[in-house]
Here is the input.
Amino acid sequence: DYLDLVLGNIGRETESTTVRTTLAQLRTAANLYVAPEARDAARSKIADGLWELAQGAQAGSDSQLQFVTAFASSLVSAEHAGIVGRLRSGEETLPGLEIDTDLSWQLLVGLASVGATDAAAIDAALAADNTSKGAEFAAQARAALPTAEDKHAAWASLVDNADLPNTIVRSAALGFVHPNSTEVLGEFVQRYFDMLVPVWESRTYQIANYLIVGLYPTPLANAELRDATRAWLSANSDAAPALRRLVSEGLADVERALSAQARDAEDAS
Here is the structure.
């Protein structure tokens, strides 16, 4: 009901912050709160709906840009990736939409999340925009690549290497836990809990915070992650209170998602 409510009405909203906040909530609902058996269909509905909204938005408007950006963050199918690829190359256009450097990067991150681009294309984009902002986007795009090999490389760069600056760590962690990566993220649950205390004790507070919060595999939102988190908290009662608080907040997100999934499943039945 919520997904339909947003998709059916947000095209008439004119307040920019409301649009941005609601679109984020829309993606959260589809990725975490829908019952698992209905999630693929829900995510496809969101992507299709966002593209339709982008096509119908006022030319050059903030809403048009927000719908396109949200669409790029919500890709599911090869068809969706094809649209984004054509937008980025200029083969397909929307009236009034300027594909500036930041939007081009956001489109590329979306393509990376579904494996519709590769590291070479990301390197080429960085060569064309060799700025601090470009480096952040490139790190996010590389970490969003969905294969197990790509994820292991991203994990090593973040956890095994202590040389990356704060902004790169934050951006790469965001790409690592992209909702399109759930098939691979399960491999990292135990590694996540194994790295908590060493990272907390060896990194600056800000880097540790980015890693502990950013790499928590919330998109899994399943009972296994809940139970593993509870087990770590139970076994590490003497860990630093601030570290336990960060882990507890991740647990709360998963518990909330599981409650919503159970309620959604009741409606479906």
Remarks:
- The longest helix spans residues 241-268.
